[in-house]
Model the fold of this input.
Amino acid sequence: MTETLVFYLFAAMTVLAALRVITARNPVQAALFLVLAFCSMAGIWLLLEAEFLAMTLILVYVGAVMVLFLFVVMMLDIDLEQLREGFWRWFPFGILLAAVMVGEMFWVLGNRLTAESGLSTVVQHAADYSNTKELGRLIYTDYVYPFELAAVLLLIAIVAAIALTLRRRKGTKTQVVSQQIAVKREDRVRLVSMPAESKIGSAKKQER
Amino acid sequence: MSFLSTLLPAYAEIFLLVMVSVILIVDLFVVNQNKTLTYVLVQLTLLGCSLITVSTHQPGVAHLFNNMYVDDLMSDVLKLFCYLALSMMLVYSRNYLMVRGLFTGEFMVLALFSLLGMMVMISASHFLTLYLGLELMSLALYAMVALQRDSAIATEAAMKYFILGALASGLLLYGMSMLYGATGSLEVAAVSNAITHGVPNKELLVFGLVFVVAGLAFKLGVVPFHMWVPDVYHGAPTAMTMLIGTAPKLAAFAFVMRILAEGLQPLVMHWSSMLEILAVLSMALGNITAIAQTNLKRMFAYSTIAHMGFLLLGVLSGGIDGYGSAMFYAVIYVLMTLGGFGMIMLLSREGFEADTLNDFKGLNQRSPWLAFMMMLLMFSMAGIPPTVGFYAKLSVLSAVVNTGHIPLAVFAVLVSLIGAFYYLRIVKLMYFDAPESHVPITLQPDSGILISFNGVAVLLLGIIPGNLMSVCAVSVQQSLLLH
Done:
């Protein structure tokens, strides 16, 4: 009973937060609502006894991805008015398309959706069952091939990112470390011997 | 040792991955601006892969890594053609990329990575590895399209390719998750089994199927999911266009076979009618829109859409005839496309892209041999005997007729006739118009020999298509255990 209540609480929070993500005017607020959606989703996963995944969702998505996202949103000057341009003009068309799709789904599925769901309940485990351990065992045994492939995918991402961003543009002033290190005092400071100024006054001349 | 020998069927992939890593490091120390050492190493890697694939071939179907990897005749044959296509692509594009400063180590490494993705896709027997292979291939291709950073049109093409590719991956994954929900497995064979024995939630299954087919259609570039194809083909540097248009189509064919013909075979009634709509729309729109194009790369893009529609005709016919002819069509399509884009790159020079129809005017006066090769390629794409394109179209059509889809076959013939117009227009421009420029054509010896080989292969295979056709039929038969 409590579980059902908690589930509905988290589910409502997720849906509301997700709605606010797309309706919020301020992109920073939208990103923060996405964080809330992730957190409440992690709560639902906890109810499903997927503790490790719930923690990873918080650590990776909330802790790393969304922070990065916030940085990008704050650094880019996003012009919301420009983004919203033409929204109301296309709004009726969008609504029409959405209505057609919903209608089609109902037409195809009819009342069969509610009749029989075919979904099974969560498997109950003993108290000492470790979700993390099971995942680890599977990743390094049964799923070692996709695991390695995912590693290769990351390698490609690194190569691609470097190939696309590291380039020499003409006209940019870059540091040449070897030249900086090999610099001598003579290159930086120029000692010029000049005759002393004589106009200032006779008092100074006498001092010398 | 016993552990290593269990990995025998996957030696080619392992060798490729090791060599890519080695090349990645070696390339750092290659000071030569032309990257000759890297290039030679890449070609040797491809040769090594093909030797390994041939020598580790075993009769029958072998499964590996908990049934996530499958090695059968179809995968070996398709992999060999992928190596060939990639190797030819590198020969054709070497000089083209060198004068544009794009022939870098990263280009070759990314090309090999995309090959690895294709190989993973070709021998995947699990939705997870199918998807990972697709992403491996696509990620490398997105980056390669964007490599020409100073070109606005290439960057735009890369963005479109990336965003629509991500959308397609999302559709595919969503469909796969529904299939998993309905059948309880991600394994191709197990999914097929579960559906045959009946699943409680048939609607979920069909919904998943719709998403999977839409995702596949995006990746194949068939109507109505074709919007990215012309822009990407046009915007990307020609060498990258050639790569996108060739070997990945073989991998996509394997993907369609694994997921539709093997995994979802019990739902054939549903997906064959979907493929029918996709095929009819693609053939019509591709062939008719191609007529209006003045840019050759864009024209090839629309012709690709039409060819993919034709390929789907073979797939939806089913059986050894249908699947075999579709595989034959894919291989021949790759051969012709390599020649077509190769010709654009041969005629291009520094600061000049020979990618409009006017650039081909009077080619016969400038170089009769190249004009003859281009004529053979165009005849083959149009499906005119005695070139191999005719035989490819004929075998698909006969499979369609044998399954009783007579109106479909008639329609395919009619739109192919429309399509013949724009291929023959190039032949007319080459032979009957006066050249617009008289700049002498400088041929590199390697790509010059290769284009001759390519054109002659199109002709010879057209005269004696039997061997290749029977290889395709046998490999499809053995992989699907058809009788």
